[in-house]
Amino acid sequence: MKGKPDPYDSYTSPASTPSFTRDNKDECSLIDFIDKLKKIQAGFASVSVGDELDIRVENINVLVVYNGNTPCGNIVSSFNGKIIQCKRNGRTFRVKVLSKSGDIRVYCL
After folding, report:
1. Is the CATH number of domain 29-108 3.30.70.2330?
2. How far apart are alpha carbons 68 and 91 in whole angstroms?
3. What is the pTM of this model?
4. CB of 57 closer than 8 Å to CB of 84
5. Which residues contact 91 (CB under 8 A, 6 or more apart)?
6. What is the DSSP string of 52-86?
7. Which tens digit of pLDDT belongs to each residue from 64-93?
8. Structural domain boundaries of the chain?
9. What's the per-residue H, E or C state across 17-34?
10. pLDDT by residue (tens digit) across 14-54?
């Protein structure tokens, strides 16, 4: 039919949107949450609000480290299992310091 364009021609069905499976690396990029740092260690005294810290996995522990090796504390979250899996698959995470009382934002790059 000529004339007016059909407004539904560009409609995308929810069924056609990408889905994330357990093995899909894109699922890792969905990890982005705010939490409180647990078991705060002496290294946390050296950081400032706004600093970007790294995550290191040791056994089943997700550690937040400053300058690559100075422990600042632990992340204890329902996301820990997924963070560990994503890190083992080569994904990188950052932890942004939101407050000196231990508020942090954890996200995947």
Report:
1. yes
2. 16
3. 0.74
4. yes
5. 25, 28, 29, 108, 109
6. EEEEEEETTEEEEEETTTEEEEEE-STTHHHHHHH
7. 999 888 999 999 999 999 999 999 999 999
8. 29-108
9. CCCCCCCCCHHHHCCEEE
10. 333 333 445 554 789 999 999 999 999 999 999 999 999 99
